[in-house]
Design a protein that fits this description.
The complex is a heterodimer of chains A (113) and B (125). Chain A is 0% helix and 51% strand. By secondary structure, chain A is mainly beta. With 125 residues, chain B is an all-beta fold. Chain B contains no helices and 11 strands. In chain B, strand 7 and strand 8 form a beta hairpin. Classes of the chains: A mainly beta (113), B mainly beta (125). The interface between A and B is medium-sized, with 25 and 24 residues.
Amino acid sequence: DIVMTQSPDSLAVSLGERATINCKSSQSVFYNSNKKNYLAWYQQKPGQPPRLLVSWASTRESGVPDRFSGSGSGTDFTLTISSLQAEDVAVYYCQQYYDTPLTFGPGTKVDIK
Amino acid sequence: EVQVVESGGGVVQPGGSLRLSCATSGFTFSSYAMSWVRQAPGKGLEWVSSIRTTGDNSGDRTYYTDSVKGRFTISRDDSGNILYLQMNNLRAEDTALYFCSKCPRASPYSPTDSWGQGTLVTVSS
């Protein structure tokens, strides 16, 4: 199984400041035949289902504010919130869909400092 | 608008069975892979199972996480736009909120772009 790890477990950032979340996979999730990284990021607010923010490591979903950006390749990935807003308080998960079982990271909780 | 609504959760004794249903609308159900993901109380997300589209023969039809293989069965009714999860021989560790989710393509090797609110399964004596 591909194990996903995230760091930090939690972080508190001032409004308007940058938040950076890291995700690492135990093996590469880059598929050579189509040159794509099979990595997604989700946001989950309390009492709500997850929301897909980014797929293919860096493709922002429709309707997702452009302050959210994904980067990385192979085994190391980053989700950046360029200017944290109050509504961004949530738990963020990365997920690999390169191989089954599809696996999620343990989550990173983002709060306001 | 894509809608995904789960039902069928409840309290069941260990060893018991439940069938979860997921009613969908707002998209061509038969064209997309579907998944079940669960979340134990206060815990993170765990993928449970996915199913390809009926017409996609490029690989296995259904996929499961190891802990549910042989106990859970995912299926789909393309005529009724419904996804199912038959859960047998339930264990305490299956207690979770079960989310039905839509994949953005026919392959289950996909993220999930639409989620329901979940249905709670509690396994307890």
